[in-house]
Amino acid sequence: MNENIVSKIEELKKEKNAIILAHFYQPAEIQAIADAVGDSYYLSEIARDCKEDVIVFCGVQFMGESAKIMSPQKTVLMSSKNPGCIMAAMASEKAVVEMKKKYPEALTVCYINSTAEVKAHCDVSVTSSSALNILGNVENKQILFLPDRNLGGYIAEHFPEKEFILWDGCCVIHDRVDEKQILELKEEHPEAKILVHPECRKEIRDMGDFVGSTSGIIKYATNDDAQEFIVATEEGILYELERQNPNKKFYFPGGKGVIKCKDMKKTTLESVYNTLLNMENEVIVEENTRVNALNALLNMHKLSEK
Prior knowledge:
Order of helices and strands: HEHEHEHEHHEHEHEHEHHEHEHEHEHH
Number of helices: 16
Strand content: 15-25%
Number of strands: 12
Oligomer: single chain
Largest sheet: 4 strands, parallel
Radius of gyration: 19 Å
Structural class: alpha/beta
Strand order of the largest sheet: 2-1-3-4
């Protein structure tokens, strides 16, 4: 790691009264310098409650938007230019409005991996770590879930008494995880346990010894007695897995670079430095959209805590 640029980033943080937040899928050197590292739910709490004036979000656009929605008085900067999310782009505001007309009685639930404009038309947002708890705390029998059909299907399996209408979207990174790749790894490492993110397809989830969010996967691997794990999620999680479990082995389907989100990997030490130096890549959410989207995020935190 370039210690010179790291020290410059630290100086700029103090000067700007800034905090750096990083998702588990970010590059290792970014997680190493972040003030907080976690999944979407944890980072949304930190962004909401932190005292700093400036938030540098090392993640993708919807994460920065969520921070701005919750804390409009703060300056939110993305750590790289245009870090999009293919899944979030699969649900447009217009299409969601039309779908809601078809299902007027449904509770509209959006994965946090959605745009601010989409959240503005939803009743509650969820993360992969909070979804089951939230859906267990709502009485509605009909659920319109977007944009991830895989996560939606996973949730639906836990609530057979509810009717789920699933949006036809997905995370292309998790959706490409292949059953054959996991079987090959299992043959090479027969004692390894299989850990799966719910954004994966059902046939992959059914292979898992554990299915859960990034934070859930890390917790399971840390607390379990097994020494080897096959991990079906974005490879950036390896940094935290190895940091907490230096004596355990982790394998990713397809090998290094296969389960990799290019947008998450746009962040570099240089881009973080330039973001703070020039106060660039600012997240702007139109006020009417922000106010309408706020309800979905407030309900996410409220229903998670019941």
